[in-house]
Structure formats: structure tokens, C-alpha cells
Design a protein that fits this description.
Blueprint: E1 12-15, E2 36-39, E3 73-75, E4 80-81, E5 86-87, E6 99-101, E7 109-115, E8 118-123, E9 127-138, E10 144-158, E11 173-175, E12 178-183, E13 188-193, E14 201-204, H1 211-217, E15 221-229, E16 234-241, E17 250-251, E18 257-258, E19 267-273, E20 278-283, E21 289-293, E22 296-301, E23 304-307, E24 317-318, E25 321-322, E26 328-333, E27 341-343, E28 345-350, E29 354-362, E30 376-378, E31 388-389, E32 392-393, E33 397-399, E34 402-406, E35 426-428, E36 431-437, E37 451-455, E38 458-460
Antiparallel strand pairs: 1-2, 3-6, 4-5, 7-8, 8-9, 9-10, 11-12, 12-13, 13-14, 15-16, 16-19, 17-18, 19-20, 21-22, 22-23, 24-25, 26-36, 27-35, 27-38, 28-34, 28-37, 29-30, 29-36, 31-32, 33-34
């Protein structure tokens, strides 16, 4: 005897032959054994009602049908229009031209970035761009003319240069018409820029004084995180992995982390500034992601997000830890590196309170064996402005909003009495200088201290 139940499918009939009920109502194939469905082709099941076309039926079995991955191909769905509620995002009609592929010899596609009516395609070993909703027609002279086209992804044109994004799409960051990313396989950091008149191209920004550094360090990275700091106008990149270092991070007596002078042994975080076209600084923090929003810069440390340059945060504090060491700025005086010089003075522009913590140089090795540590020359420390010793000013002297001091060579102290008045200077091809803010722990929430510029007077010598 047939049993009548509520029909959960339009235009279907439930026949007798088993128990009624569903383990998942509305889902064919999940009914209990003995309940069958028969599709009909008349609307509402009316006798002599309007028929529906059921379409083609497949009768060929593909024994090798399975998932097939194409790492160099792209596919797009139908369109979506929020104004008219037209939604075809779930449609991928194979009969239409909805796929585009790039050359598989350049590796898999790692990153796609849409920029107005262009699509930037980042493969492991190549960077290309594709037109969106337009075609490029070339004249007999080879001049391109852009016209509207039916294809969503049109011609794909590679950028000049054998560079890609390797397998590190996390290194990608963008600001305006400039895109930044790292190519681990080739040991370079790149900028993809586009301007008016088609002035676009790839530039290895790692060549700006840091070519050897990135060549040595990128290959050792497990992750390369990139972000753009809109507030300071800098591309920040963090190289993370087992990186070479002669230093470690110890702890002070109050269990606060103490950062060594030269960096960390498992990561390097540094930034590139387009305004000076160079790498301007290393940083202490180790981010796992970063972004800018409303001219504010944020980074993530694991699941936690931190706001940078916050006046509420203690100076020298990163990710909840306050570093006990004073703040340092390290740099190199390296003008005319092939000429031996004597550095006699040092001057800086910035906030009051900076001191010169160290200055050292490797002098010429007259044995002809090149540089060696036996010829290391060092200068005495120069205290902050206003420091007095033996009735004499030994710190920086302020003149016209600039600070000056003379350099005293430790090896030039003929009396070996740590004389404050020896001004022999430091001799060498270059000098490493460390500037220190004298006591940042006196008031951790004090106004920021700035160092705008620093220089030195030198005397060139024939030897």
C-alpha cells in the first residue's frame, strides 16, 4: 500500500516499496533503502501540462576521471552584479573561454594582484600582466591599441627580467603603483612599478648596497614576510629562518631581554625607503604579518596585533617586552672607501641627549695581507651634550642647533691616562659608528628622540 508524504522535491513522485523518511531531507541519494524517486517532465505533474526539456544525458564513462591540478592556469566564474542581484559566481561553463594559462616552464602561479583593469601574475620564476575585459591590437608599426573585448582575461605579457616571487607570496606588499616582493631563488628583493606612458618594470632594490646581504640570507629563510608602512613610507621585510649570526639575545637581571648590538640569530627585519633609494634600518621586532590602515601601521606577532608609533607604548617596547639596553643607531662612514682618511670630528642634527658609544676602524695592513684585526683603531666614547670632566666639557657641544665633538683615538693616548684632550682622530678607510640615546629608561613614555643627520670631518692621506 502506498504511503503519502510531503514531497521535498519539485516534480518528483515517491513510490511505495520501503520505509518512508529521510536521513537528510532534501538531499537525493541519502534516502532510506526502499524509497525511490522518479523525475517527471511536466510542470506540477499536470496531465498534458507543459513539458520541460531535460537536456542531454551522459552515456560515456570516463574511467580515469579524477581531480587534476593545473598550477599555471586560471579560471573565472560568471559575473556578479549587486545592484540587480544577478549572481553567476557558482557557474563555470566549460563551453566558454573561462580559462587562461601561463607558461608552465616558469613554475606555478603563487600570487595574483588585480590593479584597475590589469591583472599582475606572479609565478615562481616570472612576473607577467594580463588585460582584463579588453584586448590589445597591434598596428603594422607594432603600436598597441587597447579595445574592449569579450574575454575576461586577455593577452598575457611578461615583464622583462628573469625574476619571480619563488614560493614566498607572503613577501608581497603594495603601495600606490609600486609592488614589492622577494625572489628567494635568485637572492634578490624587487620592486614592480608602473607609471604614466607605460613606464613599468622590475627593479632589484636589493642591489642598493645590500646585494651580498640578501644573496647570503634569503636562501636560508623559511618565511619572508613583507608589508608596507604608509606612515613612514617604507617597505618592511622580515627574513625568518636559521640565519647566520655571532650574537645571541640574553636576559638582564630583571629578566628583560637584552638585545645584542648586531642583531638576532633567527631573523632579520629591515626596511627600504624609496625616497632615499636605499635600505635605511634594521629593526628589533619579528612580525608574522603587517599592514597599514588609515595611515597607521600594524604588525602581527602570532595571533596578536600591535600598533606601531603609539604614544601610549613605552619606548623600546616591542610585542609586550621592554628591552633593557639603551637605543642604538649604527651606521658606517664610508665616503671614498678606497682612500685612507683620518676622521677628526663628528657632528649630528637631532634631539639633545645622543652620545657616541663607539667608533672603530680597521687601518691599512702594511704587510700586504689586507685588513686584519691587529690594526683596529678605536675612539673614546663621547658623552651627551653638557657633560663636564676635570672642569672641561667633554661631551657634544651645541652650536646653531647642531652638535659637534672631536674624536679622540685610544691608541693615540701617549700618556696612557685616558686623557680627555687627545684629538688625534681615527685613521682608516671607513669607520663603524654607534650612536646611543643616553638613558631611555628614565622616562619610558618620554617624547621620541630623533637623529636626522650625522657627519664627520676627514683628512685624506697618501697612506
Amino acid at each position: 500500500m502506498a504511503v503519502t508524504i510531503e514531497i521535498t522535491y519539485f516534480n518528483s513522485i515517491v513510490l511505495a516499496g520501503g520505509q518512508t523518511g529521510y536521513s537528510n531531507a532534501g538531499s537525493p541519494g541519502t534516502h532510506t533503502p526502499g524509497v525511490y524517486h522518479i523525475e517527471e517532465n511536466r510542470i506540477k505533474g499536470e496531465f498534458n501540462g507543459k513539458q520541460m526539456d531535460l537536456g542531454a544525458r551522459a552515456h560515456v564513462v570516463n574511467e580515469r576521471y579524477k581531480e587534476h591540478k593545473r598550477p599555471n592556469a586560471m579560471i573565472h566564474s560568471g559575473i556578479f552584479n549587486a545592484r540587480t542581484d544577478f549572481n553567476e559566481l557558482n557557474q563555470f561553463p566549460v563551453g566558454e573561454e573561462i580559462t587562461r594559462a601561463v607558461d608552465i616552464s616558469h613554475g606555478s602561479i603563487q600570487k595574483l594582484y588585480a590593479e584597475e583593469t590589469n591583472l599582475n601574475i606572479f609565478q615562481e620564476n616570472k612576473v607577467s600582466r594580463a588585460l582584463i575585459d579588453k584586448d590589445m591590437i597591434f598596428t603594422a608599426e607594432g603600436v598597441g591599441i587597447t579595445t574592449a573585448g569579450k574575454r575576461v582575461i586577455s593577452q598575457i605579457t611578461p615583464y622583462t627580467g628573469k625574476y619571480g616571487i619563488s614560493r614566498n607570496p607572503e613577501s608581497f606588499a603594495v603601495f600606490g603603483n609600486r609592488k614589492y616582493f622577494a625572489d628567494k631563488d635568485r637572492g634578490v628583493v624587487l620592486r614592480l612599478s608602473g607609471g604614466q606612458g607605460g613606464g613599468q618594470g622590475l627593479t632589484p632594490i636589493s642591489n642598493a648596497g645590500m646585494k651580498d646581504f640578501f644573496k647570503d640570507h634569503l636562501v636560508l629563510c623559511d618565511n619572508i614576510y613583507g608589508s608596507y608602512d604608509e606612515q613612514k613610507g617604507k617597505y618592511v621585510i622580515s627574513l625568518q629562518g636559521t640565519l647566520p649570526s655571532n650574537n645571541t639575545i640574553a636576559t638582564s637581571s630583571n629578566n628583560l631581554p637584552v638585545l645584542s648590538n648586531t642583531g638576532q640569530n633567527d631573523y632579520r627585519t629591515l626596511c627600504y625607503d624609496d625616497r632615499v633609494q636605499g635600505w635605511t634600518s634594521f629593526f628589533t621586532y619579528k612580525p608574522t604579518f603587517g599592514l597599514s590602515n588609515n595611515n597607521e601601521y600594524y604588525t602581527f606577532n602570532g595571533p596578536d596585533m600591535y600598533k606601531h608609533y603609539s604614544v601610549q607604548s613605552a619606548r623600546g617596547s616591542f610585542y609586550g617586552s621592554t628591552f633593557a639596553d639603551p637605543s642604538y643607531v649604527k651606521f658606517v662612514f664610508n665616503d671614498q672607501p678606497s682612500v685612507t682618511k683620518t676622521f677628526t670630528t663628528i657632528n649630528y642634527e637631532g634631539s639633545t641627549g645622543w652620545a657616541m658609544d663607539s667608533m672603530s676602524s680597521v687601518a691599512e695592513d702594511y704587510s700586504g695581507l689586507g685588513m686584519n684585526s691587529d690594526n683596529l683603531q678605536q675612539a673614546y666614547k663621547i658623552p651627551k651634550e653638557g657633560t663636564i670632566a676635570d672642569g672641561q666639557t667633554i661631551g657634544f657641544i651645541k652650536k646653531e642647533d647642531k652638535y659637534f665633538a672631536e674624536i679622540r683615538n685610544k691608541d693615540g693616548d701617549v700618556f696612557k691616562d685616558n686623557s680627555h684632550f687627545n684629538t688625534s682622530g681615527v685613521k682608516g678607510y671607513y669607520v663603524d659608528v654607534t650612536m646611543q640615546y643616553y638613558n631611555p629608561t628614565e622616562n619610558s613614555n618620554a617624547a621620541k628622540k630623533e637623529l636626522f643627520a650625522i657627519g664627520s670631518e676627514v683628512i685624506s692621506s697618501s697612506k
